[in-house]
């Protein structure tokens, strides 16, 4: 997906701010979605950080029922698209619309040739047969996955463009800002394809990444201090304001 198409999808002139909600139950998920809707975020991702997929699915359905027009993506923690896409296809058949899937690991393998990306191709096949057709952003050189040496970032990122709508990367851990050089390398590698970033973004450092990143998936940087589960409206509002101002100047 081209950068301009990604931003058009979210009706954003700057990077799309997509809050990530670490869900605990229906009430907490809905409460946080209300915050991001009220502040004008263009969408969100829900993630099952503390429990399995089966417990997560009814929460997804509940949030969708409460917010039928919301752009809503999900992340099934530690699950690749090979297993996730059939679930998303079934949700679609059950009338539960999920607009995007973010995988922590897209299974891009920089040790293999471009025509030998076995696991990434299996994921692509699962998507093709699932019946689901949302946006796919997949972790590449991503936190807590198999470590990739910096000299292989460029090749990994370039490979990833063939398997997903938006390439996704991160810093070394949740809440840790990514090295600016890594983002520069990714942007050089993928040209005008969409790039998302999924760790360490805050209202204080977002300006460092806005020229190269098209989507910020953010939790820690907009949550209440010391609270892993709940958005602080003022922090979210500040980040949204900064991205809009950047877009207006671009």
Structure commentary:
- The protein has 8 helices and 8 strands.
- It has 250 residues and is α/β, with parallel strands linked by helices.
- It has one domain: TIM Barrel (Alpha-Beta Barrel), CATH 3.20.20.
- The longest helix has 17 residues.
- It has an 8-stranded parallel β-barrel with strand order 1-2-3-4-5-6-7-8, surrounded by 6 helices.
- α2 crosses α3.
Task: List the topology elements.
Blueprint: H1 3-9, E1 16-22, H2 26-39, E2 44-47, H3 53-66, E3 72-75, H4 81-93, E4 100-103, H5 118-130, E5 135-139, H6 153-160, E6 166-169, H7 180-190, E7 194-197, E8 215-218, H8 233-249
Parallel strand pairs: 1-2, 1-8, 2-3, 3-4, 4-5, 5-6, 6-7, 7-8
Helix pairs in contact: 2-3, 4-5, 6-7
Q: How confident is the prediction overall: mean pLDDT? A: 95
State the shape: globular
Order of helices and strands: HEHEHEHEHEHEHEEH
Count of alpha/pi helices: 8
Mind telling me which CATH architecture this is? Alpha-Beta Barrel
Task: Throw out a few tags for this protein.
single chain; 250 residues; TIM Barrel; alpha/beta
Short description:
The chain is an alpha/beta fold and about 250 residues long. Helices cover about 40% and strands about 15% of the residues.
